[in-house]
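Chain A, query sequence.
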Amino acid sequence: MDGPRAASAGSAGSRGGAAGSALVALVAFVVCCRLRPDIAVGLVVLGAVFTTIERWRPVHEQPPAIRRTGGVTDAAHFVVDEILAAAGLVAVVFVALPFVQGATPDVIPRAVHHGPEWATWILGLVLAEVFGYWGHRLSHEIPFLWRFHRVHHSSPTMDWLAPNRRHPLDQTFARSSVALPMFALGFGLPMLMGHFVVRRFQGLFVHANWNVRLGPLEWLVASPHFHHWHHADDPAAFNTNYAGQSMIVDKVFGTLHRPSGWPTAYGCDGSTPERGYLAQLASPWYAANRAGPARWMGHRPVISPAALAADERIPLRARSSLGRTPEVERARHYQLLR
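Chain A, predicted structure.
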């Protein structure tokens, strides 16, 4: 086969594969909407609300979430991942909870529930936030987990649809990191479900392209300003602001980053397709995404000051398109060896 014909056949095959993947994703979306119509309705209602407030006071001038590149894919994540992650959580709890309970001394759950009911309720909220913080932090600092969590950080745009770009396995781990210790400590399903519902809505809020500040209340309620810096393409912000609801937790564990302004660019390293639901699910196995941070193991790469200085002279928004040297790419994982 000559060159032009081979290229034409390859292009046709690629288009056919993309069309097939899109069809599979569409079928999954429709089936999940039938299984959980409440989630489908939530997508429409919340989309109307957040689109309005994002147009009212945006952080950055950009297209509405559903119209930007990857917006339709993120909408598919909104519905499909909720069902897949719920099924994954049930499987993890069924398999792992007996071992976690067996490893938890009986004296700990008794001490947790020793006081009045209101105090136990408040303690449960605090514990769920701390467990969620460490689950999120490990997703960044353990290389294998980062391969899946990278999907969430791959979005170069922040808006109310951005938090839905999650790998179902990453979402399953995040929820399991809260559910397993909470169940082992004797907390019931209603409290856990309440925590997940609040965190779901808060996730849409903190990712939104909404220029709103909460003043002193931001110490108790995570704001878009706080979480936008977690997604910032800025070396000073890498691996910071892990908390879901209160930045006090980041303050306690030394990972709080709170500049006065807003980030100018978002995203992360690696190679994650901007659109295509199945392609994003497959991306953790791409060769470009198999390398990950090892800072938690104590391994620190040697990065020359010249390489870091050269990267710093390139504007943040330009760096994502110009690419980086291997040394600078590693620096992204290790927070510039701070």
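The radius of gyration is 21 Å. Residues 3-35 form the longest helix (33 residues).
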